[in-house]
Request: fold
Amino acid sequence: DVHVAHVTVYPADHSVNALEFSHDFFVGIDPSTVKDHSSKKLFDMWKEMNRYYILAEKKFTASGQHEDNFPNFVDSRGYVVYLRKWLEIKPELNNFVKSGMLDKDQFDTLDENASASASLSSSNTT
Reply:
């Protein structure tokens, strides 16, 4: 439950506490206020956030740019900064955010064992 997650008090050393940070993007926002959304609305919100995150990260990591403050690349979209904070806590999700796949769901096409395993698995599902 989203509301429970937002109002739960975690131990001081819990990783989720790293999400508590101050930034001008979040002035006046009360995270304890929860609004219901349909699954379609949530998916649309995710696609938008994901698109803007990828754009901001491309600008941030572009060769020749010397800025080291990620929020300067998000065009005042605080939710993109928040996603970045989550990815610092859960780096294993970077691949999913960037490509839509989890590491465990990918395989190296040059690895014969992985290719054979994926081929076998797909033929079993058809």
